[in-house]
Design goal:
There is one protein chain. This protein is α+β, with helices and mostly antiparallel strands. It is built from six helices and six strands. A four-stranded antiparallel beta sheet has the order 2-1-3-4. Strands 5-6 form a two-stranded parallel ribbon. Helix 4 crosses helix 5. It is globular and about 45 Å long.
Length: 179
């Protein structure tokens, strides 16, 4: 069973203390929400817990292994991460961007196995994107892009999913559907 454990995580910059001695444990099957005002350090805590930002103090571990010692692919097999900021690097088709969620499993969008292709189709359906699957991502609205990135994180089928404001850009109908 995959477990993400953060212990006494602190994140500081020269200007500010972003996170102070935060601890938590996340396990599959649980739904955990971190609430706080803008600038409270929620994203910094998530990034430090995933090894994407080095904490000033404290530790984070996935299944007892220090997150900083794991490769990005090893982390991605255990935890799908949907960041708050999701810039598009290039104008690719929606289906191919969703398929990138399988990259940590060795899949490439141009060479999906039958099982991987079915997983991509299910993620497209779950996020109401089937009708947009062959469109280029740079032609989508903000909400459609948000759903595309949700589908990319869902298709990974990782034991844990950490999503930073996953429904912020969505209309109420799609907020409900994603949740």
């Amino acid at each position: 069973m995959t477990e993400l454990r953060a212990h006494e995580i602190s994140v500081q910059t020269q200007e500010a203390n972003l996170v102070s001695a935060a601890s938590f444990v996340l396990k599959p099957g649980e739904f955990t929400v971190v609430l706080g005002p803008n600038g409270a350090g929620k994203t910094s805590l998530i990034r430090a817990s995933l090894g994407l930002l080095r904490p000033t103090k404290g530790t984070a571990a996935i299944n007892g292994q220090d997150v900083m010692a794991l490769s990005p692919i090893e982390r991605a097999k255990q935890i799908a991460y949907l960041p708050q900021m999701r810039p598009l690097a290039w104008p690719n088709r929606v289906r191919n961007i969703v398929a990138l969620g399988l990259f940590s499993h060795g899949a490439a969008p141009a060479r999906l196995s039958a099982q991987d292709a079915l997983a991509v189709e299910k993620a497209l359906q779950d996020c109401d994107l089937v009708h947009l699957a062959d469109r280029h991502a740079d032609t989508l609205s903000g909400g459609e892009i948000a759903r595309m990135h949700c589908a990319r994180s869902f298709v990974a089928n990782a034991p844990l999913l950490i999503a930073d404001e996953p429904i912020a850009a969505l209309d109420p109908r799609h907020q409900f559907g994603i949740l």
